[in-house]
Description:
With 511 residues, the chain is of the alpha+beta class. The chain has helices at residues 18-29, 54-61, 66-70, 105-118, 166-170, 238-249, 296-316, 325-349, 353-366, 369-380, 432-442, 485-500; strands spanning 9-14, 34-38, 51-52, 75-76, 78-79, 88-89, 100-102, 122-125, 128-134, 139-145, 148-159, 177-178, 183-190, 200-203, 207-213, 219-225, 256-265, 268-270, 275-276, 279-281, 287-288, 404-407, 410-413, 423-427, 451-455, 464-469, 475-480.
Amino acid sequence: xxxxxxxxxxxxxxxxxxxxxxxxxxxxxxxxxxxxxxxxxxxxxxxxxxxxxxxxxxxxxxxxxxxxxxxxxxxxxxxxxxxxxxxxxxxxxxxxxxxxxxxxxxxxxxxxxxxxxxxxxxxxxxxxxxxxxxxxxxxxxxxxxxxxxxxxxxxxxxxxxxxxxxxxxxxxxxxxxxxxxxxxxxxxxxxxxxxxxxxxxxxxxxxxxxxxxxxxxxxxxxxxxxxxxxxxxxxxxxxxxxxxxxxxxxxxxxxxxxxxxxxxxxxxxxxxxxxxxxxxxxxxxxxxxxxxxxxxxxxxxxxxxxxxxxxxxxxxxxxxxxxxxxxxxxxxxxxxxxxxxxxxxxxxxxxxxxxxxxxxxxxxxxxxxxxxxxxxxxxxxxxxxxxxxxxxxxxxxxxxxxxxxxxxxxxxxxxxxxxxxxxxxxxxxxxxxxxxxxxxxxxxxxxxxxxxxxxxxxxxxxxxxxxxxxxxxxxxxxxxxxxxxxxxxxxxxxxxxxxxxxxxxxxxxxx
Length: 511
């Protein structure tokens, strides 16, 4: 590894949206040095995304940020799937955050930028990356900033620069998928008679209309056109938008004074790999899909939470062989699932009369709690479970719940022990082998706080002997009280060396 002086930063993050800002914070609390390079001089005032789902809120809670996001924000217990009349009921979720939170993308980005600044992350706005190169030891970016052009070198580059990602293209990473067949035209406008404006999503013979108030003056209005497409790179005008309203809804609603006009299609693509050498991708740079169900930002935030600690571990020299490659392995499947369900929603939204009976069948099914819960889990991300190798256990690879832990210092919930992005080793049965393996593992690494050893009682999980929770909140190892001392010791030792730091490199190799 080259000397630190050869690098300007450990990680060059290209793109300063919510995903880039959260990733920067995750790297910083893990003692890596990132810089965020954002071409815009200030945050855009316009938001495509409006909500945070349960898994994002659970994750933010594990960094002590949930209250910051909830402060002054509205929440709701229902959502929609494909604009069907039967609501998705998020209150059915087995989660401490069984709701969706109204947090516009600009607000989410602001709060995460403030978080990054609190940790001393350098954020360079108005600095556009124009080229990316990599070699065996690091990567470089060419940047055009307010005072001219310059070059930065880092150990890694992460592209969080959106669906048209320069970073992805520079790395030669393929972006296969399906092209756009549906055109969505969106506008934040003043309506002539807001009291008579439609509300929510309405399906017509020609397409769909979406209409919701944003404030006392403006509405967010969108049309979904299943028959005509726009030329790539063309701008949306108010005239074209009102014409689309008349085609889809039969009335232009007196829309005027647009403060934002945008359009997009239902194209859905996913990067062939999220890593190519020293270059990695996250957020829309890794996957794009039709923004239905409020899943896009949430998917990207989970990318950042999965990648941050693994990248920092690799930079700091304690990550075991193959650790960074598990980012691509673990995050590909959740994105494929989101692309699949958004394509399914588009199919159900089609105005073709033959689809109407299919919608009726789906609505009938969604009145069943089991079906409704399944869709709520899918949209909110709580169905995600990673294929983590280790002794089989019902919790392995799942997201650790908000367990209540009674310790000598008092009673706390699990999220408190993950605030600084550390691992949490829960010792719940007083098994001596857990302490012994922990000390055995920590001593040769000159342990500096990466893993918190929490001796506690947990009434919610009386059968559990121990759990190792990763910094991103997922369970890397678990054992019940019925497990033998040998099984507990061997399973925990392997999990610690695999995920939390190498003591014997021959043991911790990912397959």
